[in-house]
What does this fold into?
Amino acid sequence: MKAKLFIAILIVTAAITQAAIDWDIYGGNETIVAGSDYRIVNVYDDDSDHAFLDISGGTISSLSTYDLSVADISDGSIGTIVAKNSSEVNVYGGNIYQALQSSDSAVINLFGLTGDPTLTYLGTGVINIYGYNFDFLASGTGPKDGWLSGNWANGNPFEFYLRNLPEAFPNSQIVLHEIPEPATVLLFGLGSFFLRA
It folds into this structure.
């Protein structure tokens, strides 16, 4: 009797539980929000429309962008991001917990995130990193691999591993954009205010 009840509970639980799904997006504007759970998301242009994906939450195991598509990420949890062709991925927040890959002519812009992913470089894509206090420590197979640390624009620290770079770091594929520290901007603003007074 207990075994039958246990099996019935398992069947009902399995039916209620929403499993992660795959989603292929072809053109248009789409959104992924908190509570969404995807295994694989692929973003493509279609013949008449560029694809735009806004991610403000949810969980995605693997996100891949193609063609001229654009993905903006402000929150959520993503395992791996792969940008291909001439696509663009803008990361303003959220957690990338495995790897970022940029290939072909794709661009990944990192303005801030949580988690410390591995940046894997493949092809000729570009990864732009916006922050300050950058420091690189070569490790692994030589000057092409190592740990990059610094602070995002909001002051939060980061550290992640760079792997498979085609040339010693820094280079033209992983581009560091030094932005002023928040305190520097504040001092500049106060100085301008007092000069006017």
